[in-house]
Amino acid sequence: MPSYRRVLVLGGARSGKSRTALQLAEQASLQRIYVATAQAFDDEMRERIALHRLERDQSWQTVDAPLELPQAIQAQTGPDKAVLVDCLTLWLSNIVLAERDPAHQADRLLHAVRDAQGPLILVSNEVGQGIVPSTPLGRSFRDEQGRLNQRIAEACDAVVFVAAGCPILIKPAPALDLRLA
Fold first, then answer.
1. Where are the beta strands (DSSP E) in the chain?
2. What is the distance between the alpha carbons of residues 19 and 123, in angstroms, rounded to a whole number?
3. Helix (H), strand (E) at residue 132
């Protein structure tokens, strides 16, 4: 796979998207920065965070950015660094829970992604392929996440979709020929 400056890695829960993103970052012989957006509010989440940390060796520096992700991207990206953000879904959830305006925060994030001064890999869940959430908050979050993914995908040089641990390059993609005859 060719190298790209900004890559979005999408997939469902437990699809292998974080592992794929780590492998992409580790292909670069650069300093590695892991920007974590998770917050450990309970034992189950603390365990998930610990497992993610075990996936990374000592060559990784971890930066926590549960809310201030645009600033972390601006501060950490550089031509000598590979920066991996995991994940945009947790970041957006943190934004919603903090009662910040998701659209405004997405604008700020988009600017940071576009202005990144070095290799940047972003991980996000594709939440629109599952069941329709039963609550207005759930449906609103799903819609915000879908809009965020679309905007970030547009700003990225490449988009990789991961299903069952198999990465599929979906951007750049060949032009669609929709002629019926």
1. 6-11, 31-36, 60-64, 81-86, 120-125, 158-163, 166-171
2. 10
3. none
Q: What is the pTM of this model?
A: 0.91
Q: Are strands 166-171 and 158-163 parallel, antiparallel or unpaired?
A: antiparallel
Q: Is 104 among the catalytic positions?
A: no
The closest of 111, 106, 54, 112 to 83, measured between CA atoms, is 112
All domains in the chain, ordered by first residue: 6-171 (3.40.50.300)
Marked catalytic residue, from 52, 111, 147, 151: 52
Q: Tens digits of per-residue pLDDT, 7-54?
A: 999 999 889 999 999 999 998 878 999 999 988 888 888 898 888 888
**How many Cβ atoms sit within 10 Å of the Cβ of residue 181?**
2
CA-nearest of 170, 75, 161 to 118 is 75
Name the residue among 74, 89, 168 with its Cα closest to residue 128. 89
Q: Which two tokens stand for residue 88?
A: 């945009």
- Within its chain, how far is the Cα of 71 from the centroid? 15
Sheet holding 60-64, edge to edge: 60-64, 31-36, 81-86, 120-125, 6-11, 158-163, 166-171
Q: What's the CA gap between 150 and 155, in Å, rounded? A: 9
